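Hi R.,

As promised on Friday, here is the backbone we talked about, encoded as structure tokens. Could you run it through your design pipeline when you get a chance and send me back a sequence?
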């Protein structure tokens, strides 16, 4: 009993310190990683919800056909005239709106879709997913990472991201699952049922209906990319697509590849990666590192008291840094500033506050065809199901011939590159092209190794949200992924 209380107290304490950092100094976006860490810790007390295989695998095996609603005229009505405060000279089309994924429950997912300025009809289609679970792909992914615009520090106007991924693809940002951002359900008990399985099925239903709304994309090369907890969403959605492509009555989706960045692939291995990374990057002491290695067994369901003590010590030693990008400045002033001169070359660590202000402006919500709500970056879910690892599903996807890329910003402390390497090394894949530097703009952009069926690339100087701090390197990397080539190996 006493031991159990200790565990609960530690959990509450971790929760408190992470939320505190999340809200007061690091900015809302970082809750994507905070929620992820909380989830890793929560496994200790909610073991019954966690299994080694994905329950969804079985659920989806018996999965028949999804409902397709008529979509006539909806593409036209989803077209955005202009976003309030957008810069002059916007040369591409933008769409946003809702796709109903369950008519009876009244459940609908919100998307933002940007076409490519040039030759959009021959460029591939990419779906982007942020993690959490429960964080917005629109607020984070589109507005602070890879979308065409970022929000100025005035919280009202936008500036152009020259390295937006719609330079090379048509990009859908999906707020998933229902309850995140503008996505909702009229049956609010749906929020308590959210988990990996319902998220994958809803995202699949969204896609099938979205292709009816945008039929010109039905046969287009399709890719799914995402970061953090999307290490679950992306492979699970890909697997759902492959399964349903085999059902002759279902729309065949032309899935070509998946990419996951700083992704949760295996829970206990990720915890080892986190603590080893804190030591190798001189954030934790020798004593803490040794203590964690001596007393912690992350594969077990509960931490020992000694292990808990060292985890607490690790946090104390860390100080107030941005664990999602350990060398980056932190947000020291969360207020709006009076300037409209933001630059993609100079990432502002307070960006999330500007985004939150912008997306809560009535005219912005109207321009987006969104419900008038108080929009937030993340929702906290109880989260009903998840496997301890998505590597088995990734292996199935690799075997199906779909291209699989794993990338990692190498200054992230939340899902550090060590966690990714430890996880992938368990697959024992043969090497096709040995580890080497890749280049962009005459500088090393990172390192890449090609395994049989999977490529691993790092992005030098990028944190958890890779395109925020290294937009040019991220664009080079994703262009290579879409073209099916390794990034340039010479300057
Ligand atoms: C949810 O309820 C509102 C109000 O009745 C309705 O306008 C809306 O269409 C419903 N949403 C869905 C997805 O059915
Ligand atoms: C667009 O496609 C045309 C025809 O294939 C090609 O000549 C042109 O260079 C392309 N433009 C861009 C910007 O990719
Ligand atoms: C789809 O069908 C093919 C051919 O029967 C099979 O090899 C493959 O495993 C199936 N894919 C999935 C995801 O079930
Ligand atoms: C496909 O649809 C037909 C007619 O609706 C139905 O009879 C058949 O069972 C369906 N097949 C599958 C594999 O769902
Ligand atoms: C912001 O700048 C505008 C134009 O320069 C000025 O009129 C306004 O008073 C400023 N607002 C604040 C809060 O400084
Ligand atoms: C924008 O202007 C402010 C005030 O003039 C200045 O402090 C800031 O450095 C500028 N930001 C950029 C990205 O140029």
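Update: got your reply. Pasting your designed sequence below so it's all in one thread:
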């Amino acid at each position: 009993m006493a031991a159990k209380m200790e565990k609960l107290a530690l959990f509450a304490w971790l929760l408190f310190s992470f939320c505190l950092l999340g809200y007061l100094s690091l900015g809302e976006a970082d809750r994507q990683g905070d929620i992820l860490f909380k989830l890793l810790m929560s496994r200790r007390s909610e073991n019954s919800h966690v299994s080694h295989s994905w329950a969804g695998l079985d659920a989806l095996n018996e999965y028949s056909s999804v409902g397709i609603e008529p979509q006539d005229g909806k593409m036209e009505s989803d077209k955005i005239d202009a976003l309030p405060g957008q810069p002059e000279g916007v040369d591409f089309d933008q769409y946003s709106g809702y796709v109903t994924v369950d008519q009876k429950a009244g459940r609908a997912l919100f998307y933002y879709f940007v076409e490519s300025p040039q030759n959009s009809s021959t460029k591939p289609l990419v779906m982007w997913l942020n993690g959490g679970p429960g964080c917005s792909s629109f607020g984070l992914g589109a507005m602070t990472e890879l979308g065409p615009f970022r929000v100025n520090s005035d919280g009202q106007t936008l500036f152009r991201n020259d390295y937006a991924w719609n330079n090379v693809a048509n990009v859908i940002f999906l707020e998933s699952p229902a309850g995140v951002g503008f996505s909702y359900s009229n049956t609010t008990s749906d929020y308590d049922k959210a988990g990996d399985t319902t998220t994958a099925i809803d995202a699949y239903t969204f896609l099938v209906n979205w292709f009816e709304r945008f039929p010109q994309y039905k046969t287009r090369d399709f890719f799914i990319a995402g970061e953090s907890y999307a290490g679950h969403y992306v492979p699970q959605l890909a697997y759902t697509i492959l399964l349903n492509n085999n059902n002759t009555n279902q729309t065949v989706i032309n899935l070509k590849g998946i990419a996951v960045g700083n992704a949760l692939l295996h829970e206990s291995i990720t915890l080892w990666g986190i603590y080893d990374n804190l030591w190798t990057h001189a954030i934790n002491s020798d004593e803490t590192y040794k203590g964690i290695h001596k007393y912690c067994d992350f594969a077990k369901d509960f931490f020992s008291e000694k292990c808990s003590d060292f985890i607490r010590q690790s946090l104390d030693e860390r100080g107030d840094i941005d664990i999602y990008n350990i060398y980056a400045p932190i947000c020291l002033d969360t207020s709006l500033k009076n300037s409209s001169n933001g630059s993609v070359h100079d990432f502002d660590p307070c960006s999330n506050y500007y985004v939150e202000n912008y997306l809560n402006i009535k005219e912005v919500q109207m321009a987006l065809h969104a419900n008038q709500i108080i929009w937030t970056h993340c929702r906290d879910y109880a989260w009903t199901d998840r496997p301890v690892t998505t590597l088995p599903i990734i292996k199935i996807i690799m075997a199906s011939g779909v291209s699989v890329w794993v990338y990692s910003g190498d200054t992230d402390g939340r899902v550090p590159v060590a966690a990714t390497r430890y996880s992938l090394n368990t697959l024992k894949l043969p090497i096709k092209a040995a580890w080497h530097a890749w280049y962009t703009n005459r500088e090393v952009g990172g390192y890449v190794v090609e395994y049989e069926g999977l490529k691993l690339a790092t992005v030098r100087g990028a944190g958890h949200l890779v395109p925020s701090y290294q937009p040019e390197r991220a664009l080079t990397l994703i262009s290579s992924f879409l073209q099916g080539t390794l990034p340039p190996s010479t300057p």
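One thing I noticed while checking it: The chain has a mean pLDDT of 89.

Thanks again,
M.
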